[in-house]
Amino acid sequence: MIRLHVTQSLSAAAPVAPTLDQSRYLTQVMRLKVGDDLLVFNGHDGEWRCTIAEVLKKGVILRAEAQVRPQVHGPDLELIVAVVKKARVETIVEKAAELGARRVRLVLTKRTNADRIRLDRLDAIAEEAAEQTGRMDVPAVDDPVKLDALLDGWEAGRRLMFCDETGGAPAMRALAPYSPSPLGGGALARGDDGVGRAEQPDALPGPAHPASAAPSPPSPNGEGEAQPKWSILIGPEGGFSPEEGERLRSLPFATAVSLGPRILRADTAAIAAMTLWQAAVGDWER
């Protein structure tokens, strides 16, 4: 069944007016008529079955009939990516939406070689991906900001998976202590190089680093205080500068990870990193 994202409130018998472009899609592309059903969501009120009530010259009017799924949210995961070529940024936003990111943040680094970014285009890509994948919210896409400014204003309690092309623990091993399922866990030990590593089960007990203590598993629908907050950072095509890498490795909330022995393009790295994070920490098994 067709799914449509709208910004209006949804409740029983409420009228819903899609945008003109959405109306054209429903009537001219999908050939829907009065009385036909579709699914509608707005990120707040769950997913609703709606009926086309009227077809006007400039748009259609829907009527909300019944809620078919209550509102749930996925994991609190941000994808932070240095701006790269336009086509690759578009791919990254699409796949981030498909893989469950709640937000995509674009950053400017010392080696960023950026194309012009159209946020309206990226918003439309994120919305379409959300409609097609069955999720009930649309990830936000933020204006580009400088990496230093983003780190200066870092949210307390949010962890950072820093994809470090110069080294780092294998991602699954580095993320194991944060997993709600056993992946060879144990407390997280942080070495002098700032890389998070899983201790052996027989390691001596001691006070946990505040940024590295394993969180309680999130609730099944991704809601609640136990939900861990994470961001994944992907660098520019030329890599992070030495100064940026040094700062990132020094951050107490950051875990440097390796994505393997091969050099990956930014879009491939984003997909790989999110897949590894989802397998270790995300909501794939919930």
From TrEMBL:
Q: Which residues form the Ribosomal RNA small subunit methyltransferase E PUA-like domain?
A: 21-63
Species source reads: Brevundimonas intermedia
Name a single GO cellular component.
cytoplasm
In short, the EC number is 2.1.1.193
> According to its UniProt record, which reaction does this protein catalyse?
uridine(1498) in 16S rRNA + S-adenosyl-L-methionine = N(3)-methyluridine(1498) in 16S rRNA + S-adenosyl-L-homocysteine + H(+)
Name the keywords, alphabetized: Cytoplasm, Methyltransferase, rRNA processing, S-adenosyl-L-methionine, Transferase
Does Thylakoid show up as a keyword for this record? no
Q: Where is this region: Disordered?
A: 183-245
Which function does this protein serve?
Specifically methylates the N3 position of the uracil ring of uridine 1498 (m3U1498) in 16S rRNA. Acts on the fully assembled 30S ribosomal subunit.
One example of the protein's molecular function in GO is: rRNA (uridine-N3-)-methyltransferase activity
Entry's CDD domains?
Answer: RsmE-like
Q: Which GO terms describe its biological process?
A: rRNA base methylation
Q: Which SUPFAM superfamilies match?
A: alpha/beta knot, PUA domain-like
Q: What class of enzyme is it?
A: transferase
Q: Which family does it belong to?
A: Belongs to the RNA methyltransferase RsmE family.
Residue ranges with Basic and acidic residues bias: 190-200
- InterPro entries registered for this protein in UniProt: Alpha/beta_knot_MTases (IPR029028), PUA-like_sf (IPR015947), RsmE (IPR006700), RsmE_MTase_dom (IPR046886), RsmE_PUA-like (IPR046887), tRNA_m1G_MTases_N (IPR029026)
Where does the record place it?
Cytoplasm
Q: In what ranges is there compositional bias, type Low complexity?
A: 203-214
Query: Main localization of the protein?
Result: cytoplasm
Q: Where is the Ribosomal RNA small subunit methyltransferase E methyltransferase domain?
A: 76-167, 226-278
| Name used for this protein in its record | Ribosomal RNA small subunit methyltransferase E
